[in-house]
Amino acid sequence: MPRTRQLLDTLSVSFRPQVSSERLAAAIDAMLECEEAVTACAAAMVGEDDVRELHDAIIRDLNCSDTVATTRRLISRGSDAALLSAQLEACVIACEHSAELCAEHANHHEHCRICSQATLRCAEACRQILHRLHG
Amino acid sequence: MPRTRQLLDTLSVSFRPQVSSERLAAAIDAMLECEEAVTACAAAMVGEDDVRELHDAIIRDLNCSDTVATTRRLISRGSDAALLSAQLEACVIACEHSAELCAEHANHHEHCRICSQATLRCAEACRQILHRLHG
Amino acid sequence: MPRTRQLLDTLSVSFRPQVSSERLAAAIDAMLECEEAVTACAAAMVGEDDVRELHDAIIRDLNCSDTVATTRRLISRGSDAALLSAQLEACVIACEHSAELCAEHANHHEHCRICSQATLRCAEACRQILHRLHG
Amino acid sequence: MPRTRQLLDTLSVSFRPQVSSERLAAAIDAMLECEEAVTACAAAMVGEDDVRELHDAIIRDLNCSDTVATTRRLISRGSDAALLSAQLEACVIACEHSAELCAEHANHHEHCRICSQATLRCAEACRQILHRLHG
């Protein structure tokens, strides 16, 4: 969203030198989209006829939702690099684990297909920030 | 985001008959933007020179962030109308209270200006859904 | 927890005159216990053999978890009575709805039994505060 | 709380072999207490006369609140060890960072004293679980 970039430009977050506000805004947008996708997908899976095969995918989506939300809040507050790095590492794992299982169900559940794409984009955006924080 | 609409069309949420997925997607997008704006604005206000004048605005932004996040999750899960209505009522108040104070600081803090607009849009989107749930 | 009471006594929250810190501390403890019970119970239900019969109970537990967490944060920040009342109303509904369904499964799932008791205690604690806010 | 232990004994979480339910229950209780303490302390600091000296402590409390809440939810869902380890690492940092600054203000703000103790206990409980997950 153009407004995410506009908002970030009004802030003075501590990791600015290493990470451009364009990249941050893109990451935040990927996170927002991911939070919504995993929340909706988890609830939809709970109602599917094959829910017994979806157990792990549901738990991973729920975990991903909380992990991404916390990571986004930390980024938005301009948190210190040590905490942010650790939280981003957890976020990448949460997104990849969620994507892995939803991708297996993407053929028969459209919400899983959309969700697995959103979590992969979010994981990639987090890795981009991590790379710059460590670089 | 077009993807929010695409995601919602894969779900079978219980209030569909009264609320179109277009309107729901617009509300969810307004909520996501609001969640991000109030989180970033609250943190930015904590670092301002006039933070002592911003006490109530900071608390209202923090409250708004949590209230909107919960409301969006309930909507995304296709929750029952009784709970959703009550949570939407709280959400409208949280957004209006946040907007009221950030608007007072919009002239000297750009993040407050952006935030007050985001909370007003979110309040309006929630009222639209409430109106249809009750109608 | 005695520490909750000790913590509250260091704060100057706006609804103190109507609600004693003893009652507030008891409500916060009931909420903390409820948040944990519904989160764990929802995840446990997802893994049960009869998960297909538990759909609505899972969604209600997830909703309850988010709603109670937000309500507790608002209370802990000493928020204004208008927002707090609306959020408490939503919280009571979320807890009652969750308790209603978990009670139906209390005989064959011990986590549902514990969860339904925790949500009922939380609903009652919230009603007590609501009663005093309005009284 | 005895009920936390009682609840955990009804679940079949994946890291049980390495981590006893006693230790898990103790960690969850430490997290619940920590979540409440940092949320209330952050809001109280925003209202203090010396709020301009408390900027970093407020942000760290807010970050700690979200990080601990997410970590607790992951533990309560019996999540896989890889994600849980990464999230626990972030949680320890969030708690230690919060404790570090609140300890500096413990002499003149009682809520900071209580908060710094709660975050230290939470960090220690998380390290105990991490140690066993890796051991």
Oligomer: homotetramer
What low-confidence regions of chain A span 5 or more consecutive residues with pLDDT below 50?
none
Order of helices and strands of chain A: HHHHH
CATH class of chain A: Mainly Alpha
What is the third-level CATH name, the topology of chain A? Substrate Binding Domain Of Dnak, Chain:A, Domain 2
List how many beta strands of chain A DSSP finds.
0
The pair of chains with the biggest contact is:
A-B, 34 and 34 residues
Present the secondary structure layout.
4 copies of one chain form a homotetramer.
Chain A lengths: L1 H7 L12 H26 L8 H22 L4 H24 L5 H25 L1
Helix pairs in contact in A: 1-2, 2-3, 2-5, 3-4, 4-5
Pfam family, one (chains A, B, C, D): Csp
Protein name (chains A, B, C, D): Four-helix bundle copper-binding protein
InterPro entries (chains A, B, C, D): Csp_YhjQ
Keywords:
5 helices; Substrate Binding Domain Of Dnak, Chain:A, Domain 2; homotetramer; Four-helix bundle copper-binding protein (chains A, B, C, D)
Quick rundown:
Chains A, B, C, D: This is Four-helix bundle copper-binding protein. Chain A is mainly α and about 140 residues long.
Describe the protein.
- The structure is a homotetramer of 135-residue chains.
- Chain A is mainly α and 135 residues long.
- Chain A has one domain (20-134): Substrate Binding Domain Of Dnak, Chain:A, Domain 2 (Up-down Bundle), CATH 1.20.1270.
- The first copy, chain A, is 77% helix and 0% strand.
- Chain A is built from 5 helices and no strands.
- In chain A, helix 2 (21-46) packs antiparallel against helix 3.
- The longest helix of chain A has 26 residues, at 21-46.
- The A-D interface holds A 59, 62-63, 66-67, 69-70, 73-74, 77-80, 82-83, 86-87, 89-90, 93-94, 97 and D 59, 62-63, 66-67, 69-70, 73-74, 77-80, 82-83, 86-87, 89-90, 93-94, 97.
